[in-house]
Each structure stands twice: as structure tokens, then as C-alpha cells.
UniProtKB/TrEMBL annotation:
PANTHER family hit by this protein: ASPARTATE AMMONIA-LYASE
Biological source species: Phycicoccus avicenniae
GO biological process annotation, one example: tricarboxylic acid cycle
Domain Fumarate lyase N-terminal: 15-345
Domain Fumarase C C-terminal: 412-464
UniProt-listed CDD domains: Aspartase
GO MF annotation: an example: aspartate ammonia-lyase activity
GO CC terms in record: cytosol
Name of the featured protein: Aspartate ammonia-lyase
Keywords: Lyase
PROSITE patterns tied to this protein: FUMARATE_LYASES
Keyword flag Lyase: yes
Classification via Pfam families: FumaraseC_C, Lyase_1
Length: 508
């Protein structure tokens, strides 16, 4: 807590009072004045802060190794950076996520915090930059234009690891439900209309599979984050940097981060190009949109509970209305839907920001970083709440599902190889008009025996788990005509009223 004491720091624009206990300095103070936009500090993205410290630590080690930084100073910077990596001082990373200057304020915030931590460790006062300088020492061999994009990529790489873990946990949660519901028959739907039978387990297995595919796509896109431009400095020419710095800092950064980083082959191109963020953001959007579709399905399947589909029951998480007693809403799928909408919007922001780059640098990397970090953070949290607060507690409404399958005319599709499409269509119309059971109608029409009907309408056959490709003989020497089948149930007049059944063409 600031006690009102201050220190004076000076830059090329003049001097400012800085809170005495602040680890940040004058460059950060100017950013706080200039960019009161988002009111969200960069510290909301913990892995970005860690990545900045990792870059500073790798640079200190490389600078010491190639002999351009005093070993004692390098050691202080190294140890100070490690404390940030370990989670300390994150509250000192206070500049807003949206800022002008292509990330300069973020880089200087990191330089100042790490320098002042190091000064304190050396028994010096904060702001004693004559002893250890944020620019000449902590930022040695660096520029915002290589530090900032590298830190974004490293931070996203770290974030991606946790996203993939949560995505896999969600996939397994749906897979567990697929096993639990493996024997629960239901009616599948296409275009929201009744189609053919399946199991609820197959439906949930499909959810698990699509999430598994996204896991693979995200991993494939991770390589886009591995190309960095350390040593490029201002525009990629490496001005002010020792020729041995790039390979040295890359080696140390790989060791510190555990990521399979590589140096860009063209540092000028790499410094100006931000296309990797477009592709990575797009892969996040793909995952978000597919997850949102799953949430749409969960909301539909649980709709009701009385006047909707009501096939599954989502866990009741909170009262759903201030006016309707007993109402419970699907709030968890709803919030994940909204995450997906935000991710889609963020992807458009990234696209426009990348397009807005000019000449040797893209000035809009701060909004790119904010958009992608927000997307990956919200996706991870959304997956967690979907798994823990929804999917794990889903139950099947077995009684309702059984009744719906029993009365569904869709099951007759399974009999078309044996009785023909025309007879099946006629029987389906009869079942719809009369409410009769399809199996009973087929047997009564003499088209198949009860034993064969039961066999073909078994859960295994209906859901494709067990298939038959060869037709079996129908009962009797002569199949009953479609017209007779329908007429026997509805009477001649009602059969004639059904389009295509009571017509002359059907009586030929």
C-alpha cells in the first residue's frame, strides 16, 4: 500500500513523481496516463507476464555468455526475472492491455519491474538506475519489436498447454457419458425433424470425437507460435546487437520455456509479419464454434422439461426466473455460447489488426495480444465450467426416450431392405395416422414375422452397431400392397385421402 512517499524519475520528456514502493517507473507511469482505456492491466494474463520475464532472463544469460553484460548485473537480472516467473510481483505489471506504441509500454513495464526487483535484491533503492539500468542493462541487445512478439508467442504457448489439458478433460467427460448412455435408444434428428434411431451414447461419443479433432488441430497450429525473432531489434536488421546474441538467446529461451522455439530465417519479415496470430486465432475460433454447437444441442436436448424435448437433464445450477417459480435454465451451456461469440469477435479483431500493419512493424500487436489471450483464457475457463458444472452431472430421461422411440415411425427405415421403400412409406403413414406401433403393423400386414421384426428393430441393428446387408425373405408368397396395408388400418376412404397412396397409380 502506497504511504504517500514518492521518488523522482526522469526520461527524455522530463521528470515525474513515482510512488516510492512501486517497482515500475516513469515509462510505465506515462503509459498509465496515456492509455486509461481498458482498465485491465496486462497482469490479467499471467502467462504473458511470465513470458516477458522468461525473455528477460534468457537475454541476461545470453548477454553474459557473449560478454556484453557484466556478470554481476546479469545474475541480478536473472534472479529477479525468476521471481516474476515464479509468480511474484505480477501486480506491478500495471499498463493497460490496450496501448499505443506497439507494446513499448509493456516492454518498459517489464524492464522497470525486473530492474527494481534486482536493485532491491542488491540492497539498493528503487530507481537507482545508475547502478542497474532498465534500458542499458535489462533491455540490453533487445527492442520492443523482438521482445514483445516473442513474449506473446511464448505466453500463448504456455497458455495453450493448459487449454489442451482442459479440452482433453472435457472430451473424456463426454466419452464417459457416451459409455454411460451406450444402451439408451433415442430418435435422431435431421433439420430438427425425426430421422432414424440412434443411442444417446452415440450422440455423446460424437461430441467427444469432435473435441478430440479440435485438440489435434490446436496442437498442429502450435508450431506457428514457435518461430521467434529475438535479435531482430528494431526492424529485423539486428542493429545494436552482437552477432552471437540470437543463437545464444534462443538456446537459453528454449531451455527456460521448455518450448520447441526456433529463430526465424528472415528477421525483417518476421518482425513485420503477424500472420501467425491470424492462423492461431482462427483455430481457437474453430474450437469455440464447434463447442458452441455442442452447447446448442445440450440446450435443445434438455429443453422443457415438460413442453420440450426433455431427453436429458442438465444439473440445476440456479433459479431461472424472478417471476416463474421452479424454472431452471441451461445457464452453463448459455455462458459457453457467449464465450464462443466473444472468441469469434476477437478473431475478427485480430484479422483487422494484422491487416493494419504497415512497412517494417505492426503497431497493433497489443490488441492482437489482448484478443488472443482473452480468447484462450475464456475458452479454458468455459470448458472447465461446462465439464464440472454441466456435463459431469447430465442424466438421461430414459423413460421418455423409450416412449419416443417406441412410437417413432423412423424405426421403419431399418426395415426398408426387407419390405421395400414403398411399403415402408405406406406403413409409416399408417402409423402416423393411427398412432399404432410400427412393428405391429408390419407383422399384421404379413410382411415379416414377429421374430424377424424384433431382430431388425433391436438396439444393435437400429443404431448401426450390428448391420445386415442382405435382404431376408418376407412372410407369405405375395407381399401385401401398399394400398391394402394402409386401407386395412384407415379404411378405403382414408387411404384415398393420403397423397400417392389411394391414387390410380398405386392401384395399377
Amino acid at each position: 500500500m502506497n504511504d504517500g512517499r514518492t521518488r523522482i524519475e526522469t526520461d527524455s520528456l522530463g521528470s515525474l513523481e513515482i510512488p516510492a514502493d512501486a517497482y515500475w517507473g516513469i515509462h510505465t507511469a506515462r503509459a498509465l496516463e496515456n492509455f486509461p482505456i481498458s482498465k485491465r492491466p496486462i497482469s490479467v494474463y499471467k502467462d504473458l507476464v511470465k513470458a516477458l520475464a522468461m525473455v528477460k532472463q534468457a537475454s541476461a544469460r545470453a548477454n553474459r555468455e557473449i560478454g556484453v553484460l557484466d556478470p554481476a548485473k546479469a545474475d541480478l537480472i536473472d534472479r529477479a526475472a525468476q521471481r516474476v516467473i515464479d509468480g511474484e510481483f505480477h501486480d506491478q505489471f500495471v499498463v493497460g492491455v490496450i496501448q499505443g506504441g506497439a507494446g513499448t509500454s509493456t516492454n518498459m513495464n517489464a524492464n522497470e519491474v525486473i530492474t527494481n526487483i534486482a536493485l532491491e535484491m542488491a540492497g539498493r533503492d528503487k530507481g537507482d538506475y545508475a547502478f542497474l539500468s532498465p534500458i542499458d542493462d535489462t533491455n540490453r541487445s533487445q527492442s520492443t519489436n523482438d521482445v514483445y512478439p516473442t513474449a506473446i508467442k511464448v505466453g500463448l504457448g504456455l497458455d495453450l498447454l493448459t487449454l489442451l489439458e482442459e479440452l482433453d478433460l472435457l472430451r473424456k467427460a463426454f466419452l464417459d457419458k457416451a459409455v454411460e448412455f451406450h444402451d439408451v435408444l433415442k430418435v435422431g434428428r435431421t433439420q430438427l425433424q425425426d430421422a432414424v434411431p440412434m443411442t444417446l451414447g452415440q450422440e455423446f461419443h460424437g461430441f467427444a470425437t469432435t473435441l478430440g479433432e479440435d485438440h489435434s488441430r490446436l496442437k498442429e497450429n502450435a508450431y506457428l507460435l514457435c518461430e521467434v525473432n529475438m535479435g531482430a531489434t528494431a526492424i529485423g536488421t539486428g542493429i545494436t546487437t552482437h552477432p552471437d546474441y540470437s543463437p545464444a538467446v534462443l538456446r537459453h529461451l528454449r531451455e527456460i520455456t521448455g518450448l520447441d522455439l526456433e529463430l526465424a530465417t528472415d528477421l525483417v519479415e518476421s518482425t513485420s509479419d503477424t500472420g501467425a496470430f491470424v492462423s492461431f486465432s482462427a483455430s481457437l475460433k474453430r474450437n469455440a464454434i464447434k463447442l458452441s454447437k455442442i452447447c446448442n444441442d445440450l440446450r435443445l436436448l434438455s429443453s422443457g422439461p415438460q413442453a420440450g424435448l426433455g431427453e436429458i437433464n442438465l444439473p440445476a445450477r440456479q433459479a431461472g426466473s424472478s417471476i416463474m417459480p421452479g424454472k431452471v435454465n441451461p445457464v452453463i451451456p448459455e455462458v459457453v455460447n457467449q464465450v464462443a461469440f466473444a472468441v469469434a469477435g476477437a478473431d475478427l479483431t485480430v484479422t483487422m489488426a494484422v491487416e493494419g500493419g504497415q512497412l517494417q512493424l505492426n503497431a497493433f500487436e497489443p490488441v492482437i495480444a489482448h484478443s488472443v489471450f482473452q480468447s484462450i483464457t475464456w475458452m479454458r475457463r468455459g470448458m472447465y465450467t461446462l465439464r464440472v458444472n454441466c456435463v459431469d452431472g447430465i442424466t438421461a430421461n430414459r423413460k421418455r426416450l423409450g416412449a419416443m422411440v417406441g412410437s417413432s415411425v423412423g424405426v421403419i427405415t431399418a426395415l426398408t431392405p426387407f419390405i421395400g421403400y414403398a411399403a415402408a412409406a405406406a406403413l409409416a403413414k399408417t402409423a402416423l395416422l393411427t398412432g399404432r406401433n410400427v412393428a405391429d403393423l408390419v407383422v399384421e400386414a404379413g410382411l415379416m414375422s414377429r421374430e424377424e421384426v424384433d431382430k431388425q428393430l433391436s438396439p444393435a441393428r437400429l443404431t448401426g452397431l450390428e448391420t445386415v446387408t442382405a435382404p431376408i425373405p418376407v412372410v407369405g408368397e405375395k407381399p401385401v400392397s401398399n394400398e391394402h396395408v394402409l386401407a386395412s388400418e384407415c379404411g378405403e376412404e382414408r387411404a384415398a385421402d393420403v397423397p400417392g397412396v389411394g391414387s390410380r397409380s398405386m392401384r395399377r
